[in-house]
Amino acid sequence: MKGLWLLLFACLLFGNTRNIEICPSVVPKGMKIKILDQKELNYGTIGGLGFSEISDLAYDRTAKRLYMLSDEGKLFVFKARFGDVVEQFEPEGAAIIRKKGGKPFRKWARDTEGMTIDGHGRLLISFEGKAKIGWFHKDSEKMGERIRKYTLPKVLRNTKNYRSKNKSLEALAWHPKYGILTVTEWPLKRDTKKRQTVYALNGRQWHFQAEPEARSAVSAIEVTDDGNLLVIERSFTGLFEPFVVTLKKVYLKGCSRNGMCRTEVLAKMNSHRGWQIDNFEGLAKVGKHRYVMVSDDNDNFYQRTLLIYFEVLP
User: What is the pTM of this model?
Assistant: First the structure.
């Protein structure tokens, strides 16, 4: 009877989630992360909006709210608490991303990909297609409405500089020293395909080497406790090729004279080596050395929305 009550409590607490296991039977040596909890999210709709294609995350540690952004221009909010495991995870609402004044974006202009919360508690969102970054309401009846638009560095304003419209401002983070940081999914046309760049809105840049896997692309970034950058790179070249997700650290301090920054691989998850992974696109810091990442199911029956809670080891 006690076990039945515990099961009922878990269902009430987490709703449409279930525990999963993405790790292989033998975890590779040298991994510098510890996975604390793993969930598959199966919400059909939240607040009348279809829950799918999650592209990024942002966590308000004061309000204990996790924001989840869909690349279809939808914003979902969950009440979420993180301890040794995911202690609470409950949907609170959803909204369509809109322009200032409430006017909706046109379909081709609402490809929302990156999200973060800055040091003032403002919710910031970046877009592919026509690249832009804005500050949006995150509470009340105006949730999802843009408050202001930020000026991008000159090189990021021209769509022709990107390898394609769908390979632009994929990742977003806020740094206490450098402010808003963004990374394109693939390097700009002017750069080699393996030379990635972190852009600050004031024009400052840092460069790092992309992973050796084919078509390795940046899908998310987050600032670490020591002021460096945690990056998700993913490589997918075809159905029968390995799907590889890499968590790596990019050291923004002490970069070389040619601007290349040191990197450190924390975990490499390879589908051909037992990892049950999916298309990880979102990342958010939720506590000291602790993060969550989420996968985009591409609104595809055969893919999943996975939420992985992990700790970066010293």
Answer: 0.93
C-alpha distance from residue 18 to each of 3, 4, 59, 84, 305 (Å): 17, 16, 21, 17, 11
Instruction: Examine the pLDDT at 293 and tell me if it is beyond 80.
Output: yes
| 193 has a pLDDT exceeding 80 | yes
Question: Domains in the chain and their CATH numbers?
Answer: 18-312 (2.120.10)
Q: Tell me which residue has tokens 């009340």.
A: 140
Looking at the predicted structure, is the pLDDT value of residue 229 above 80?
Answer: yes
7-30 pLDDT, tens digit per residue, is 444 444 455 899 999 999 998 889
Q: Write out 274-296 in H/E/C secondary structure.
A: CCCCCCEEEEEEEECCEEEEEEC
